[in-house]
Amino acid sequence: MASRPQQGGRPSGTRFAQFKLVLLGESAVGKSSLVLRFVKDQFDDYRESTIGAAFLTQTIALDDQTTVKFEIWDTAGQERYKSLAPMYYRNANCAVVVYDITQAASLDKAKSWVKELQRQANENIIIALAGNKLDLAESDPSKRAIEKADAEAYAREAGLLFFETSAKTSENVKELFTAIAKKLPIEQASQRGGMRSAAGGRPGGVDLGNRQAGGQTTAGAAGGCNC
Asked: Which residue ranges are recorded for the region named Disordered (predicted)?
């Protein structure tokens, strides 16, 4: 059965686990747009840059018996916030490192984030590499600056999940997060009541916004989100 957002309480008898997920990448590669598409199935052509980080949640059902809740930290990509990143990826169970397929330098930045995660994050962290803005390359192939085969080969060598995505058209967005969920230790986490973020808490100094009805999404960040 295809994954789907869980809209109400989870059915009895299902395995339920929650995991901390962090998004990293250069500014304006589309991190917040990917999360907005995943959580609310929306896309905004213009979004302000994230300040610090935004916190959201989304729950998906992998099948009739397995439900996964992501606690998502969407981090700011600007260089001045780089020193804050360890606060968000510390003890994360999974990470999405995003680059823009129309900007060659953004893949180099993504590679540096991957190295940092592999060196300093949870040793069992699941990392996915997402080449975003696929819609731009499909509408005008001359805009593509990073070949899919090259990025895919790097991801394979580094042991990463890999997808090219479009937050605008939603292409491969659900597939990206579903693939991550399938790689997580759901059985182990469900037996322990879910894997929480460090100390069960959230980094301080961040405006988390208001939890929406049903508790499925919590959107908000000081200053909005990066496109």
From this structure: 191-227
Q: Which residue type occupies 190? A: S
Q: What is the pLDDT along the chain (227 residues), one digit of tens a residue?
A: 444 544 445 455 578 889 999 999 988 898 889 999 999 998 876 555 544 467 888 999 888 888 899 999 988 655 555 667 788 888 899 999 999 999 999 999 999 999 999 999 989 999 999 999 999 999 999 999 999 999 999 999 999 999 999 999 999 999 999 999 999 987 776 555 554 433 334 443 333 333 333 333 333 333 333 34
Angle formed by the axes of helices 31-40 and 173-183, nearest 10°: 80
Per DSSP, the residues of 67-122 read: EEEEEEEEE--SGGGGGGHHHHHTT-SEEEEEEETT-HHHHHHHHHHHHHHHHHS-
Return d(Cα 80, Cα 83) in angstroms, integer. 7
Q: What separation, in Å, do the N-terminal and C-terminal C-alpha atoms of the chain show?
A: 31
Domains belonging to the chain, first-starting first, are 15-219 (3.40.50.300)
Q: How far apart, in whole angstroms, are the C-alpha atoms of residue 78 and residue 49?
A: 8
| H helical segments located in the chain | 31-40, 85-89, 104-120, 134-139, 148-158, 173-183, 186-191
Q: What is the largest CA-CA distance in the chain?
A: 51
Burial class (CB in 10 A: 0-12, 13-18, 19+), 106: buried
Three-state DSSP at 159 gives coil
- Measured CA to CA, the distance from residue 162 to residue 176 in angstroms comes to 8
